[in-house]
Write a structure and sequence with these properties.
The complex is a heterodimer of chains A (494) and B (444).
Chain A lengths: L46 H13 L21 H7 L2 H4 L11 H18 L3 E3 L5 H18 L7 E5 L5 H8 L3 E5 L9 H8 L7 E7 L11 H10 L3 E6 L11 H4 L3 E4 L19 E3 L11 E6 L8 E5 L15 H37 L15 E4 L10 H10 L6 E2 L8 E4 L7 H20 L1 H5 L12 H7 L12
Parallel strand pairs in A: 2-3, 2-4, 4-5, 5-6
Antiparallel strand pairs in A: 1-7, 6-7, 8-9, 10-12, 11-12
Chain B lengths: L7 H11 L28 H13 L8 E2 L12 H7 L2 H4 L11 H18 L3 E2 L6 H15 L6 E4 L5 H10 L6 E3 L7 H5 L6 E8 L10 H10 L2 E6 L10 H4 L3 E5 L15 E5 L12 E5 L5 E5 L6 H4 L12 H38 L5 E2 L8 E5 L4 H10 L2 E2 L2 E2 L10 E5 L6 H12 L3
Parallel strand pairs in B: 1-13, 3-4, 3-5, 5-6, 6-7
Antiparallel strand pairs in B: 2-8, 7-8, 9-10, 11-12, 12-15, 14-15
Classes of the chains: A alpha/beta (494), B alpha/beta (444).
């Protein structure tokens, strides 16, 4: 593959790629000259050249549409095409966010229904669709916990317990909310170390505990066996329980977090509910709470303003919950993701969503067992929707997980998540999702086994991989040191 | 079963390989008392039924397909060339994840790099990130950068009341856990009056350009004051206005943020949009979110990669300045394609259409008895009118005529009760503007 020029390199003065309207009103007096710019360095390219440029760029990407994408903790499942169609209906795509309530009843009714269904899946009482991504939902959740304690006259509760296997967003969120982290170790079976937790919950820090954030199943892909005990310990200490819902794809119809005792959780609509990842967003991170936290939900929140009758639908509108943490973004949330998630839930129904989780777990366990004689699986028990293995081999010290990942690219796969969770050496976190066929899983297992063999017989093949991608391994140090962040015409003279 | 491909035979073979009898056996670690609850959601629909149901929801809305839109206030109905949507629907773009594996993501990475370049061109800044959630969260993240640049030793943030009210709310939500003071927007203040609040404890002063009322304020004195005390001037900007207006860098801003929705993204009831964030070179290492840089591969070929990674949450964890992870990648691609298609002449042309049409509308409304237009400052494509009747009543009459009228300013600004904020873009034809004026005329 030859390299693609930048859009600026394709530019020729005088070209344009858009067919724009002409002025149909009299010209007004111009703005004073000192308010106006004299140059604008945007490229000048014809429509066809723009299309070709971006189509060629797209072809340099790997994507779910091209092949298996077992990227752990990201739930790279099929993105149904009907979802793309419905989100583009003019009545949604052309709806102004500040449309008066009566004129947005369709959108509001859809959001209300989606809130209800997400609450039903999790066993929580109320859901807000306001946050724009998972990390944004986490932020909402932790701000609610903080405000809950302040409201109860316990502002000294400023510490959040976070297992050391947690997503990086968890501790970062805690800091952002002005709270601090107490890190919890895992035991040798991959569960939270209950004794360590007990010590903290019954120790001198007891009255400073605001809550705990935990991912279920854990980022190791394991169902926490002591989950009820963990929840009990934290609640007894006066803290609230936050569930990171990134791994919800293993839980639908399996267990309801709200019924286990969780007070608040977020959902990643772009993982569990199939809205596309978009090459890095947009996501959507709904947040669900129980009755305790309901008054603290972010604003605006969709609710019924006037109940309906047998003949008439209720009137929906936005409300500000009584003790709301406030607004986290302009307008209402990533509505375009809500329409997609709604369509997805409709395509499955309640029982179908349960089947999603069952098959996600079946697929993960099938690969786990298929690879357990070739790779070290540090926690060799039934996993959830993903599992972790160690990407290194005895006697071949120079081969690392990263090399296995790069070699997988040559076999036509996207690699698993590398080096996460941090507590497993050379971690490869594999999440197949339920939308993959048995044949795909078999081929992947075969490729992983071949790579293991290559590692022993010809490690150079891995160390120099990938060989079949548009570019080879990159000089990341140079990128950070020389720091070129714009196309050439925009670089300032140095 | 919708998108699950397993046959009964697959399931049996897979269970046998795993060494269990049923799928249920894989869930032993889940507390038995809570295992397998019923999900009370109606049964699955066919694709045809889903489409019909959602169509009904969509058509229950008053949308730009059926109405002339004169409402802006932070979200604008602009024309989006067809090519934008066609490119966004490339599965290679929208079904890819964040480009953590650069060998498999050069398409996304180069597109982000080009997007960053164009945002620098518009704002006059030296670097831009790959986006935040929206304009409001970009502003909230700018506060963190300003606090960081001033080493968390300064406690004051000055916000102009001319910044979008929702953006100011978001700044307060984001920073409720910090011991900082957010001032300046409690009453109307000119930029010069705002400058009197800026002192040696001020980390940042922010203005909107054009402001929420569409007006172009003179921020020269304010910029000088900010520079004199070592505070960062942050400009919240409308990117289409930058097709003709001086860049925020020329005004003396250190950071330019804003809502990228006008650049090729539909209204979508408020999201997904994209928040752009661009900054001067000296602060680039303080920026949150993803940034793409140019480098070479092991064969010396030009290539792109996410860079300055050690700032980010997955590496720095509780020491990261922001928890941002997923951003608005696909929307940044939309903006990138939009700007590529329009180019410098197209964007300038769109900005000029907005400007002239808005001024035509303002001049016509001004002629109506009982109406007046705020001309205290020059404006771009939005302006404030004083109505002789309550805004709600005016909007109800407009809606009858197929027009979504302006934004009622009374709710956010009590002293502006009876005032309407009208936005005009290139999508508003002369006929639409004339219909707007006629309907308003009939009110008096």
């Amino acid at each position: 593959m030859t390299h693609e020029p930048t859009i600026y390199e394709l530019s020729q003065p005088g070209r344009i790629g858009a067919n724009l309207p002409s002025l149909d009103v009299p010209k007004a007096d111009p703005l004073p000259a000192d308010l106006l710019r004299t140059e604008l360095k945007l490229p000048e390219v014809s429509e066809l050249e723009v299309i070709r440029h971006f189509v060629r760029l797209s072809q340099l990407n790997y994507a779910i549409d091209k092949g298996f994408y077992p990227l752990g903790s990201c739930t790279m499942k099929y993105n149904p095409r009907i979802n793309e169609d419905v989100a583009r209906y003019e009545g949604f795509a052309g709806l102004h966010p500040l449309t008066d309530g009566e004129g947005a009843q369709g959108a509001l009714a859809l959001m209300y229904q989606l809130q209800q269904w997400l609450a039903e899946v999790s066993g929580l009482d109320s859901v807000s669709l306001h946050p724009a991504a998972g990390a944004h939902g986490e932020f909402a959740g932790i701000l609610m916990i903080r405000k809950y304690h302040i409201d109860r006259g316990e502002p000294q509760r400023t510490k959040i317990l976070v297992p050391n296997s947690a997503h990086g967003t968890n501790p970062a969120t805690v800091t952002m909310a002005g709270l601090s982290v107490i890190e919890l170790p895992a035991d040798d079976k991959g569960d939270v170390d209950i004794e360590a937790l007990k010590k903290i919950c019954e120790g001198p820090e007891r009255d400073t505990i605001a809550g705990m954030m935990i991912t279920v199943p854990s980022t190791l892909g394991l169902f926490e066996r002591g989950i009820l005990k963990i929840i009990e310990l934290v609640h007894d200490a006066g803290g609230l329980m936050y569930m990171d819902g990134a791994n919800m794809n293993a839980l639908m119809g399996v267990v309801k977090p709200g019924k286990l005792g969780f007070d608040v959780m977020h959902y990643n609509l772009h993982k569990t509910f199939s809205t596309p990842h978009g090459g890095g967003g947009p996501g959507s991170g709904a947040v669900g709470v129980n009755e305790k936290l309901k008054p603290f939900l972010p604003a605006p929140h969709v609710d019924i303003i006037e109940p309906g009758t047998d003949d008439e639908a209720p009137l929906y509108g936005f409300v500000t919950p009584e003790k709301s943490i406030g607004r986290l973004k302009a307008f209402h949330g990533n509505f375009g993701m809500h329409t997609r998630a709604y369509a997805y839930i409709r395509a499955y129904g309640g029982e179908g969503l349960h089947q999603v989780s069952r098959h996600a777990v079946l697929n993960a366990n099938y690969i786990r067992v298929g690879l357990s004689d070739t790779y070290t699986v540090p926690y060799d028990r039934a996993c959830g929707h993903e599992f972790v293995l160690e990407g290194h081999f005895e006697g071949v010290d120079k081969v690392h997980a990263l090399d296995i990942s790069k070699r997988l690219m040559d076999y036509g796969y996207h690699p698993p998540t590398n080096y996460f969770p941090l507590i497993v050496p050379e971690a490869l976190l594999i999440e197949p999702t339920e939308t993959e066929t048995k044949e795909t899983l078999d081929q992947f297992i075969t490729a992983m086994k071949k790579i293991a063999q290559e590692a022993k017989e010809n490690p150079e093949l891995l160390l120099s991989a990938p060989h079949k991608t548009p570019v080879s391994r990159l000089d990341e140090v140079r990128a950070a040191k020389q720091l070129v962040l714009c196309c050439a015409p925009l670089l300032k003279d140095s | 079963m919708s998108y699950i491909p397993h046959t009964e035979q697959d399931r049996q073979q897979m269970l046998a390989a795993i060494g269990v009898t049923t799928i249920e056996d894989l869930f032993d670690a889940v507390p038995a008392s809570h295992r397998f609850p019923k999900i009370d959601i109606p049964p699955a629909l066919s694709e045809y039924e889903i489409a019909a149901e959602l169509k009904a929801y969509a058509e229950a809305n008053d949308h730009a397909g059926n109405f002339a839109v004169f409402r802006g206030a932070g979200a604008y109905h602009h024309f989006v060339p067809s090519a934008v949507n066609h490119l966004l629907l490339r599965g290679e773009f929208f079904t890819a994840y964040t480009p953590y594996q650069p060998e498999l993501s050069q398409g996304t990475l180069q597109a982000v790099f080009e997007y960053q370049s164009m945002m620098c061109a518009l704002t006059g800044m030296d670097a831009a990130n790959a986006s935040h959630y929206d304009g409001a969260t970009s502003l909230a993240e700018a506060v963190t950068v300003a606090l960081d640049v001033t080493r968390f030793k300064r406690n004051k943030i000055v916000l102009s009341g001319g910044i979008h009210p929702q953006y100011r709310e978001v700044v307060r939500t984001y920073h409720q856990g910090r011991q900082i003071e957010i001032v300046g927007d409690d009453q109307p203040r000119s930029a010069a009056e705002l400058a009197t609040l800026v002192d040696s404890d001020t980390a940042m002063v922010a203005v909107q350009y054009p402001n929420f009322f569409g007006q172009i304020e003179d921020v020269k004195a304010l910029a000088e004051k900010a520079h004199a005390v070592g505070a960062l001037l942050v400009a919240v900007v409308n990117p289409v206005a930058l097709g003709i207006l001086k860049s925020p860098a020329d005004l003396g801003a250190a950071i330019a943020v804003g809502e990228g929705q006008p650049l090729g993204v539909g209204l979508q009831f408020g999201g997904p949009y994209l928040g752009f964030f661009s900054i001067k070179q000296e602060y680039v290492r303080k920026i949150a979110g993803r940034i793409v840089g140019e480098t070479i591969d092991s064969d010396g070929r030009r290539a792109y990669v996410m860079t300055l990674r050690p700032r980010e949450q997955d590496i720095k964890r509780e020491k990261a300045s922001s928890n941002i992870c997923t951003n608005q990648g696909l929307m940044a691609l939309a903006a990138c394609v939009y700007m590529s298609l329009l180019g410098k002449n197209g964007l300038r042309h769109v900005a000029e259409l907005c400007y002239h049409k808005a001024h035509y509308a303002a001049a016509e409304i001004e002629k109506l008895a009982g109406f007046s237009v705020d001309r205290s400052l020059p404006f771009f494509n939005e302006f404030v009118i004083k109505c002789p009747v309550p805004v709600e009543k005016a909007n109800a009459a407009l809606l009858e005529q197929g027009i979504i009228g302006g934004y009622d300013l009374g709710a956010d600004y009590p002293h502006l009760a009876g005032h309407m904020l009208i936005a005009v873009t290139e999508t508003n034809s002369k006929a639409e503007i004339d219909a707007l004026v006629e309907t308003l005329k009939a009110l008096t």
